[in-house]
Write a structure and sequence with these properties.
Elements (H helix, E strand, L loop, with lengths): L1 E5 L7 H13 L5 E5 L5 H13 L5 H19 L5 H21 L4 H9 L1 H16 L5 E2 L19 H11 L8 E5 L2 E3 L5 E3 L4 H13 L3 E6 L4 E2 L11 E2 L1 E3 H10 L9 H6 L4 E5 L8 E4 L10 E15 L7 H13 L6 E4 L3 E7 L2 H11 L3 E15 L3 H8 L3 E8 L2 E7 L1
Parallel strand pairs: 1-2, 1-7, 2-4, 3-4, 7-11, 10-12
Antiparallel strand pairs: 5-6, 8-9, 11-12, 13-15, 13-16, 14-15, 16-18, 17-18
Length: 420
């Protein structure tokens, strides 16, 4: 049995769904569990709907209508005849979304977010499941909310392992006659059956949890790149591909911010020694990067990560005194509480400097929590380079014609915050 995870970066229109079907035909002699993310930019679009509805911007319904039309066009392009049943089903889901907007928009933001944004995965997986059936690929559609059981920590829900393993094994096993299962990544449900989400890019984590629950032979993450590179080829033309990596190497790169695999994904696969592969969606027969326990070669070449939409926060005491140990504890507590994941965290005697993802709602919440004692300076529109195994020549090449805002060195890594 294998797990295939398809992300929104590769599944975004009718043609890509047809290619997905062709891939599954190639593996029709295997039992396959397919984990689906929201198609295209649906998650971003639903986030925009959520934020506009809270701002009492009447355009949120127009945004929602456009998302519905996006899915409607995909359904139309998938079938030669009018897919009346699929269109009716789509209409029902969007009526459900509108109902939940009205019901929950005055709730706590993170709870409200989780009740809406996961519909991107649900609708995407239903469209794919129905299309596969129409081509003769029988499959069992599984609602991830029925098998992925979590805490109620919205937007960063934690897996309830024993409960999840029980439900996954109940729904998916070698004994079940079906050979193909379709479910969603990113979402689960708490003990009150409210939808929860596992954090952005959490669909990878969903695939790993399902895989480790039933001990599959391997997991394949289908991406828009042919494996892992030492840098994103879209911005660094001399990027080199990596044939194989260890679990620990991938975990470190992910923790630094490389857009390879969600950080939490590696641990359940490592614990059960399940290898996984990152393979290019449009070249399905070409091998990508294989990640496993033991590899032959160490990574001693530069590893380069570029992060956009970052912000530099500088925090000082209002009374201009030096930072105490208690000050550090207070600030660290709120960083943890608000799920900040700082790229670097530098304390001096009089200030804290950090670089984080530029999420205005969280930053405002942080400011309001600490403003009695601290001043906050906020620099937005920041890019960040993280380089491991760096050298002066490479740094000069990557920072040419850029406005450098901050440089922080930590061991074999260097962090460069800049603007183009």
């Amino acid at each position: 049995m294998k797990v295939f995870k398809f992300g929104g970066g590769v599944i975004k229109d009718a043609e890509s769904i047809k290619l997905l079907a062709n891939i599954l035909i190639e593996y029709s002699y295997h039992k396959i569990i397919v984990v689906i993310s929201a198609m295209g930019k649906t998650t971003n679009a639903l986030e925009e709907v959520i934020n506009k509805s809270l701002e009492k911007d009447s355009n949120f319904d127009i945004e929602l209508f456009e998302i519905e039309q996006y899915f409607k066009k995909i359904i139309t392009n998938l079938y030669d005849t009018e897919a009346t049943e699929a269109q009716i089903q789509l209409k029902q889901y969007f009526a459900e979304i509108r109902y939940k907007i009205e019901k929950h928009k005055n709730s706590r933001y993170d709870f409200y977010y989780d009740q809406i944004v996961g519909y991107g995965e649900i609708i995407s997986s239903v469209i794919i499941s129905n299309y596969l059936k129409s081509t003769g690929l029988k499959n069992k559609w599984i609602d991830a909310r029925d098998i992925i059981k979590t805490t109620g920590k919205n937007r960063m829900a934690e897996i309830l392992e024993d409960n999840t393993v029980h439900h996954v094994r109940q729904s998916i096993s070698l004994e079940i006659s079906e050979k193909l299962f379709i479910t969603q990544g990113f979402i689960g449900a708490d003990d009150e059956e409210n939808m929860t989400t596992l954090g952005r890019e959490g669909s990878d984590y969903s695939a790993a949890i399902i895989a480790s629950s039933i001990m599959v032979e391997e997991v394949v993450f289908w991406k828009d790149v042919n494996g892992v590179f030492n840098a994103d080829p879209k911005f660094y033309f001399d990027a080199i591909s990596i044939n194989e990596m260890s679990y620990d190497d991938v975990f470190e790169l992910s923790k630094l911010g490389a857009k390879i695999i969600h950080q939490k994904t590696i641990q359940p696969l490592k614990e059960k020694n399940i290898p996984f592969e990152i393979r290019k969606f449009t070249f399905p027969l070409q091998r990508g990067t294989i990640i496993k326990e033991v590899v032959e070669n160490e990574m001693n070449f530069p590893l380069i990560i570029k992060k956009e939409n970052q912000a530099i926060l500088t925090v000082l005491r209002k009374d201009k005194n030096t930072f105490t140990i208690d000050d550090r504890k207070i600030l660290s507590k709120y960083f943890y509480k608000l799920d900040f994941d700082p790229d670097f965290l530098k304390f001096t005697d009089i200030k804290l400097i950090t670089c984080i993802k530029d999420e205005k709602n969280r930053i405002v919440t942080f400011f309001n929590a600490v403003k009695k004692k601290f001043k906050l300076f906020y620099t937005k529109n920041v890019n960040l380079l993280i380089i491991k195994n760096h050298n002066d020549e490479l740094i000069e090449e990557l920072t040419k014609n850029k406005k450098i805002l901050r440089i922080v060195k930590e061991g074999d890594r260097i962090y460069i915050a800049y603007r183009d």
